[in-house]
Amino acid sequence: MALVLHSTSNNKNASKALIAAEYTGVKVELAKDFQMGVSNKTPEFIKMNPIGKVPVLETPDGPVFESNAIARYVAKSKPDSTLFGSSLIEYAQIEQWNDFSATEIDSNIARWLYPRLGYGVHIPPAEEAAVAALKRALGALNTHLASNTYLVGHAITLADIIMGCNLSIGFRMIMTKSFTKEFPHVERYFWTVVNQPNFCKILGEVKQAESVPAPQSKKPAEPAKPKAEPKKEVKKEEAKPEEEEAAPKPKPKNPLDLLPPSKMILDDWKRLYSNTKTNFREVAVKGFWDMYDPEGYSLWFCDYKYNDENTVSFVTLNKVGGFLQRMDLARKYAFGKMLIIGSEAPFKVKGLWLFRGKEIPKFIMDEVYDMELYEWKEVDINDEAQKERASQMIEDFEPFEGEALLDAKCFK
What we know:
Order of helices and strands: EHEHEEHHHHHHHHHEHEEHEHE
Structural class: alpha+beta
Number of strands: 9
Number of helices: 14
Shape: elongated
Strand order of the largest sheet: 8-5-7-6-9
Helix content: 40-55%
Distance between the termini: 61 Å
Largest sheet: 5 strands, antiparallel
């Protein structure tokens, strides 16, 4: 007897079970003439899922709802299925990525996409938070995939099926090439997965979104005007125009914008850094110290706490790249240099950061989780040795502290 999946054919959550069925050989059929918004409102459907959400799998032993649970059921319906790996640790890792996919990837794509499609109110600060959280998740995924073709092991597992389906709506609807290019290993992984024959049978051809959907503008309905009543004399100050609206509340300013003006203009320094092609020490580095304002800015060394883990060069480079991506929220208030040091593993990661204000800004410490992975020490510019070290980091001086540079990255 075939299992019956109550859903439309283009539902990415239903696709998880259908792709799993292709890999296991389990027979799963879509319910005939299923209509979203109609079929899932019937008493028969509500009996299977009391809140009417789609999809639902009808089995000989009773219904199963929630898409990941359905996909697990289908994957486990064949005892010899390889979709859960070949060991207990692989099983646990598959479930780990399934949870990550649901809570970090799928939920944040939804928080970004659905309000823009009109399924909820579009609130810019909420969208910014969703995009930041999604970037953080994709950065972590990108780091893992830098040294792994699939999420677990060397073949497709249920983790890839669920991750691929969850990513598919993002790639199709809102995650443009300009957004995903920051995560090259995620891109490579996604196109590898969705072009597998069993994925193609269910998902068809996947094309990446060319633009981010514009928010749907919803005008609130105007209240009915009351019938005219005899005019009453009112005091002038009580009279209000009929269409008067409350003035919008000003957006709260970043505390750094409220600091006294500084003689150092950060954009001027970034321009000097970018435009200096020769005599860098004499022009750019000297220019930095001429501009530097210790009353308006602070300068910090950072050293990665876990350098012993940096045993693979490209993984280390990706780790630093992800950190710089997550620092994007500080671009208006910061400049940074990150050096990856050493000609062989383990590689050392050290940095120099310029921040607006006399401390590391709190919002950066709160939002960028990588900050706690580094030891931070303020540069004493009255100490010539520390000042010279900072100059060498700005300059990408090599050898740095007696070692070759693997790479140097700039945040500006």
